[in-house]
Amino acid sequence: MKIIGKYFIFLHSLFIKRESFNTYIRLTLDECIKVGIDSIFIVVIISTFIGAVTAVQTAYNFVTPLIPRYVISLIVRDMTLLELAPTITAIVFAGKVGSNIAGELGTMRISEQIDALEVMGINSSSFLVLPKILACVLMYPLLVILAGNLSILGGYIAATLTGEMTPSEYVYGIRVDFIQFNVTFALIKSIVFAFLIASISAFTGYFTAGGALEVGKASTKAVTSSCIAILSADYLLAQLLL
Amino acid sequence: MIEVKNISKFFDDTQVLFNINGKFLPGQANLIIGSSGTGKTVLLKCIVGLLSPDEGSVFFDGRDFHNSGRSEIQDIRREIGMLFQGGALFDSKNVEQNVGFPLDMLTKMPRDEKLDRINFVLNRLGLANSNKKMPSELSGGMKKRVGLARAIVNNSKYLFCDEPNSGLDPQTAIVIDHLIQEITEEFNITTIVVTHDMNSVMEIGDYVMFMHKGQMLWEGPNSDILNADVRELQEFVYSNKLMMALREQSS
C-alpha cells in the first residue's frame, strides 16, 4: 500500500512546477523516436510471426469439415484485435522500453544527474518522466495498429502458403461478422498499457538507490511489475468494456 | 552570505547532524572537512535543498531557504551551482550542451550570446575546443572541470563542491582546487567545499569547519588548523605521514 501511495504522489509530482510547454514538445519528440521508431523492428517481427503461428495452429485444430475454413482467419482477426496486438505487444514493449526507462533513470539517479537537475531548480520527475509517458501514450497505439495489420498479414501468408486456405477464403473470414468496437477496444487497451508501462518503469527507475546492481534490479522489477499491471488491467478492461 | 542555524537531521531513528551552525562568507573558499561518514555531504545536501533538515534553517543572503514559498525557493536555486563528486554530467549531452543546459533551462538568452558565454567559461577552465566531446570521452579531471563550468555558467552566486578531488591524481586535484579558489575570488561567489583532503585545506581553505560524528567541533582559518586544540581534529589532520613529518619538523 505504501508503494502504491508513493506511486500516486510521484504521478502528482509530474504536473507541478512544470517547465515551459516548448521544452516538453522537444523532449517528447525525442522520446517518440526512442520508444516508437526504435521499437518498430521488434514489433514487426513478433506480430508477423504471432499471426502466422495463430493461423497455422488454428487450422491444425480444425479436424472437422463441418466448420468452414474461413473461420480460421476470423479467429486470427479477433484474437489479434482483442488480445495479441495490444497485450502481447505490450509485454514486448515493457521488456524493451520499460527496462530502458528504468535503467536510464536509475543510472541518472545513482550518478547524481537527477540531483543536478534538482539543484538547478528543475522538477526532475516532470522534466524526465512526463515526456516519456506522453511519448509512450502517443506511439504505442500506432505500434498496436501496425502489429494488428502485420499479424493478420502474417496469418494470410502462413495460411495461403501452406495451402490451408485460399486467399479469397482468408479475406472473406477477415471481413465476416466484423465488430468495429473491437478496434476501439484494442486502442483503449493500448493507451492504458502504454501509460502503465511508462509510469511504472519510470517510478521504479526514479527511486533507485545504491549502485549498478540496483539499477539492474530496477530494470528487472520494472518489467515484472509492468507485466503484472498489464495483465490485471487487461482483465479489468475486458470485464468493463466487453 | 550563507548562514546555517541549528541544523539537525535524522535518518529514521539515527541522528546524523547535531545542531550545526555556521556562516559562509562570499569571495572566500569555505571548507567543510572531516572523515568519511561524519555527515559532511548530508549537511551540504541540507544546505542546497536536496534534503530537508528536521530542525534549523539555512539563509541565503537573509532568505530562509527551507521556509520559503515555492517561487522563492526556485529563485534561490537558480543562483546555486553545484559540482558533484562524480561530475554528474548528462550522458546524452556533449560538453557544450552540458555547460549550456542551465542557460537553456533558466534563461531566455539568445543563442549567440549563450554560445559566447559557454565558450568563455570553457576557456576560463582550460577546456577550449572540447565543446563537442561526450562525457564518456573525458578524463576524470576534465569531467570535474566541465561540472564546474556548468555550475558557474549561469553567474551563480553560490557554489557548492562535493569532494571535488575524489578520484583525481594530486596534480589534477591541485588544478581543480586552484580553479575553485580563483573562480570564487574572481566572481565573488560564496563557495562551500566538502572535502577530506588536507592538501585542499592547506591550499585553498580560507575558512574551515571541522565535523566529527555529525557535530561541528572546530571552525576557523586554515592557518590556525595545525595548532587547534581539538583532539579529533589533530587526529584527522595528522593522520598521514606527510603532515606528521611537517609537525615534527616545525617542533
3D architecture notes:
The complex is a heterodimer of chains A (242) and B (251). Chain A is mainly alpha-helical and 242 residues long. Chain A has one domain (27-241). Chain A is built from 9 helices and no strands. Chain A has helices at residues 2-13, 21-35, 40-61, 70-110, 113-119, 124-161, 167-175, 181-206, 212-241. Chain B is an alpha/beta fold and 251 residues long. Chain B has one domain (2-250): P-loop containing nucleotide triphosphate hydrolases (Rossmann fold). Helices cover 39% and strands 24% of the residues of chain B. Chain B is built from 9 helices and 10 strands. Chain B has helices spanning 40-48, 70-77, 95-106, 111-124, 140-152, 170-186, 198-204, 231-237, 241-250, and strands at residues 2-11, 14-24, 29-33, 55-60, 63-64, 80-83, 158-162, 190-195, 207-212, 215-220. In chain B, the strands form 2 sheets. A 6-stranded mixed sheet of chain B has the order 6-7-8-3-9-10, with helices on both faces. In chain B, strand 9 and strand 10 form a beta hairpin. Chain B is globular, with a radius of gyration of 18 Å. The termini of chain B are far apart. Chains A and B meet through helix 5 of A and helix 2, strand 6 and helix 3 of B.
> Strand content of the residues of chain B, in percent?
15-25%
Strand order of the largest sheet of chain B: 6-7-8-3-9-10
CATH topology description of chain B: Rossmann fold
Largest interface: A-B, 15 and 24 residues
Question: CATH H level of chain B: which superfamily?
Answer: P-loop containing nucleotide triphosphate hydrolases
Helices and strands of chain A, in order, run as: HHHHHHHHH
Question: Could you name the key traits of this structure?
Answer:
heterodimer; A: 242 residues; mainly alpha; B: 251 residues; alpha/beta; Rossmann fold; six-stranded mixed beta sheet; four-stranded antiparallel beta sheet; globular
